[in-house]
Specification:
432 residues, mainly alpha, Growth Hormone, Chain: A, 17 helices, 2 strands, 75% helix
């Protein structure tokens, strides 16, 4: 493919900012907003249900992906969604002053989620269309680093800032400022990309509505015709079944009063725990796992080890809930252990989707479907996690989470593995 590229020839001028912009709204909705609502007095049940439900666009995004080719270019959609998301975060900030702030802010965050999922496809499209295979492989590491930097910045720096501002400005004003900062950053990135993001001028996809529906039909049909596909779907869903419950409640548990079974941390401490210790441990786990799987390949034993690293460290939250330690170093050590295991074990799911699900016709589209199913597997248990934690209490909830890891081990042990031909899969990485 010989694409004409308009814009800077050095991908470093846009890859980092584009994938930082991918991660920021996702983490803002999935994690930071939950803590914001907790501090504003919303129950765990409502927080977990609604902040999980509005993540649905990241599951359904493959359904409208083919239609992005009908109008304009992927650069247009990338810049448009970045600027729009920036403005909408401003509306989230303003909505916090309303008496019905929860309903209003959730509605705006839902629109941000829809635009964020569309933005992800547009940015991936630019990346794949304007870079050759060698360049895709060269910059894929920077792509992942930028996305994870957005996680660190959002769950660490901005959450810490919110906690500091709460002390002087009050909870509402503090989070209005932080939501405004989310918006300002996205707006500035969008304006930057009007110049710095290359334009993908070549059209290789359907350009009419009918062709778009035809392409979507082929993508869906061939996906479900893959060998062992239903076993694969079950594995993808169950691998993260326990995580979907634990990850939504964990920061709420850290924030909750000790009398209510929580650890009573302030918002700034949570930002430090996740943004510093947790993020460093996550990156370390991911790097170590990369060497591990490159040496061993995707075998049954490898996958079981990865599953164990992913699921067993949730025991750290159960221990924290049982003993309720007051030493901050003990708490951060437990979080670091869990995040190291998370980073290490998550590689197993990514590798499975790359090598067992994606290969064949419509490789990128089928990988997108697999990641959508993965997100659904997290979203559904997350929606009920607040109800379960309110009903059981934090201690019994995290004990239940350990029981909920059993389906992941069963699915990992029994899922059929296909013998795959050696082939390169540059740039096919998930970020959700």
């Amino acid at each position: 493919m010989d694409n004409k590229i308009k814009g800077p020839s050095n991908p470093m001028k846009w890859v980092l900012t584009a994938y930082f912009a991918q991660g920021l709204p996702f983490v803002a909705i999935a994690a930071a907003s939950a803590l914001m609502f907790k501090n504003l007095g919303i129950s765990d049940t409502k927080i977990a249900f609604w902040t999980s439900l509005i993540m649905l666009p990241w599951t359904l995004k493959p359904l409208w992906g083919p239609f992005l080719e009908i109008y304009k270019t992927k650069k247009f959609f990338a810049v448009f969604t970045q600027i729009s998301i920036g403005l909408l975060f401003g509306l989230v900030a303003l909505s916090l002053t309303l008496s019905s702030f929860f309903a209003a802010s959730i509605a705006v965050l839902a629109v941000i989620a829809l635009l964020g999922a569309t933005h992800d496809m547009a940015v991936d499209g630019v990346y794949l269309n304007v870079l050759d295979l060698k360049s895709q492989a060269k910059y894929v590491g920077w792509q992942g680093a930028a996305y994870n930097l957005a996680k660190i910045f959002s769950s660490g720096a901005l959450v810490w800032l919110a906690g500091e501002l709460e002390k002087s400005q009050g909870v509402t004003n503090a989070w209005m400022i932080v939501m405004g900062l989310y918006g300002l950053i996205m707006l500035l990135i969008g304006l930057y990309h009007t110049v710095m993001l290359p334009a993908d001028t070549a059209r290789t996809e359907p350009v009419t509505l009918g062709e778009g529906f035809e392409r979507l039909g082929n993508v869906v049909t061939t996906f479900f015709q893959k060998k062992y596909i239903f076993f694969g779907i079950l594995f993808i869903i169950l691998y993260r079944f326990a995580e979907g419950q634990a990850i939504k409640i964990a920061p709420l548990f850290l924030k909750a009063d000790r009398a209510a079974g929580g650890l009573g941390l302030n918002t700034s401490d949570i930002g430090i725990a996740y943004g510093t210790f947790g993020s460093v441990a996550y990156l370390a786990g991911s790097l170590v796992a990369g060497y591990y799987v490159s040496a061993r390949g995707l075998s049954r034993s490898t996958l079981m080890v990865l599953c164990a690293f992913f699921n067993l460290p949730f025991l750290m939250y159960a221990l924290l809930a049982v003993f309720q330690p007051t030493d901050f170093s003990v708490i951060t050590s437990a979080i670091a252990i869990e995040y190291f295991g998370y980073g290490f074990g998550f590689v197993g799911l990514i590798l499975f989707m790359m090598q067992q699900i994606a290969p064949g016709d419509y490789k990128m589209a089928h990988y997108a479907f697999a990641t959508g199913i993965m997100n659904l597997g997290v979203m559904l248990p997350s929606m009920i996690s607040g109800y379960l934690s309110d009903m059981l209490g934090y201690k019994n909830f995290f004990i239940w989470v350990m029981v909920a890891t059993i389906p992941a081990f069963l699915a990992t042990w029994f899922v059929p593995l296909k013998d795959m031909p050696a082939e390169e899969t540059p740039a096919e990485q998930s970020h959700q």
